[in-house]
Design brief:
The structure is a homodimer.
Chain A lengths: L1 E14 L8 E18 L3 E2 L2 E2 L3 H10 L3 E6 L9 H12 L5 H14 L6 H7 L2 E4 L10 E4 L4 E8 L3 H6 L2 H17 L3 H14 L7 H9 L3 E4 L4 E6 L2 H5 L5 E4 L6 E2 L16
Parallel strand pairs in A: 3-5
Antiparallel strand pairs in A: 1-2, 1-12, 2-5, 2-6, 3-4, 6-7, 8-10, 8-11, 9-10
Chain lengths: ~280, ~280
């Protein structure tokens, strides 16, 4: 069984090249100690349910695999890169490609379906990943950092990357580059929250979650919006987040993709995946 | 400043293809929470000394960089993949390549200088890496595991990869494949020691360190030989190892390459690098 970590995008600047390999996003994101567990199966199962999963289908078609059984600890469409994680798992499980070829295929599947532009890159390498060019994993230039910290997360609702990218893309593109550079000037946890908040604020994206973010900040914590979901990530924000729903804790992890004997924490499967 | 982890090779099966990209080793190794810290400089410095470092020179020639200042926590030529780590650091510091292109260049430098065949692959991805084909990082198929454990290490002396590979290579090639497969059947820490010991024993390589390994095993610990160095890695072996020299402890880490503000544990620099 394979584990692929969830990816939280904090800042991003989308860029579409002539093909999927040269499309992606400059930006900053990090991988978690939560994610998905997957194994080969007869059809596509997501937390025991048969679902329509175009991004995974795209990969399966290229691998010849019939399906993949995905056990996710986090929900789809809420900014945790679960579509990218599932696509990467499917590509790797086929054993048809090198690790990086599999990563490029998963990235291609994300770009083709507009489900993500940087998650697979983050997941391929793990940690706090600063993507310095918009490209597939094999062509990616990045700097990787690690902050040994547990963060708080709250999922408020889904948000379609596709829909958001239809509007104010040029603003997102410009601000994404600016705040990625700002983060690299001082790659600390505090500055990650600062730059992510500034990015969300100046692009107007913060509106989806501004009351929640403000509540955490006014309670003395750090918080910003997860790109792209109606979701918030925070430091010392659990109590404030609890006023708005059921938050959960997860650690930043740089371990990335790994093979596991079984789902080590099966109790958690789906624990945060349903709202 | 960049950190590249040390790589400990436990089992390996060397294979030389038509070029460096198709040369490498099938095998099992793991990365540590110790390694090297490096930054760009005017010449090649290794723990404050100017040294002749062909593997790093090979990379520098392709990058245009004049030199790199390497602060290593572990010695060269004793099986910790420090040559590969230094080459990878030099390639990444140039910012001339994507991460994987830089990794391929470092691997090429290792193959060209016969200093290592699998270390750069392990270091590129981090963790307990089972290399399933002999190839450069971009073409590598592998499975990655993680054991959250602290191990004991003893460096007895240097061993030239080049010299060892001159002799009994076919035996090493065959046994390396056999015990890599055996490890994959049961990817646990205990089995890693078992398979590594069987590999070292059947190839005769164990002779370099057999008394030390036996001492650990007869004291109730686990131990085997580091490939390739007159060095031993062990679990619960610190006391037994102390009879033969000055052992040190290090954790298996899957964090791999990362960028750091400074050398976080500068006290340790060179601490284990001199014998």
């Amino acid at each position: 069984m394979i584990f692929v970590p969830a990816s939280v995008s904090c800042i991003f600047s989308p860029s579409y090249g002539k093909d999927a390999k040269s499309s992606g996003s400059i930006g900053v994101g990090f991988t978690l100690d939560l994610g998905i567990f997957a194994e080969i199966s007869e059809n596509i199962l997501f937390n025991q349910r048969t679902i329509d999963f175009p991004t995974v289908n795209y990969v399966l078609k290229k691998t010849g695999l019939k399906g993949v059984n995905i056990k996710s600890q986090l929900p789809l469409g809420c900014g945790f890169g679960i579509s990218g994680a599932s696509a990467l798992a499917a590509a790797l499980l086929s054993e048809k490609f090198s690790y990086i070829e599999a990563a490029d295929l998963a990235h291609e599947a994300e770009v083709a379906n507009l489900t993500g532009l940087g998650d697979v890159g983050n997941q391929t390498f793990g940690g706090v990943v600063v993507r310095k060019n918009a490209a597939c994993p094999s062509a990616l230039s990045f700097e990787k950092f690690y902050f040994d910290v547990e963060l708080d997360f709250l999922v408020i609702g889904e948000l379609s990357t596709k829909e958001v990218l239809k509007e104010n893309r040029s603003e997102i593109k410009n601000e994404g580059r600016i705040w990625t550079k700002e983060f690299l000037k001082k790659p600390t946890l505090e500055n990650l929250f600062h730059c992510s908040y500034q990015f969300a604020n100046r692009t107007g994206l913060i509106e989806y979650v501004d009351d929640v973010v403000e509540a955490v900040i006014s309670s003395g914590g750090l918080a910003s919006m997860i790109m792209l979901g109606k979701s918030v990530f925070a430091y010392k924000g659990f109590e404030a987040l609890s006023e708005f729903g059921r938050p959960f804790k997860a650690k930043i992890s740089c371990c990335g993709v790994r093979w596991v004997e079984g789902c080590s924490n099966s109790k958690q499967i789906g624990r945060f995946a349903e709202r």
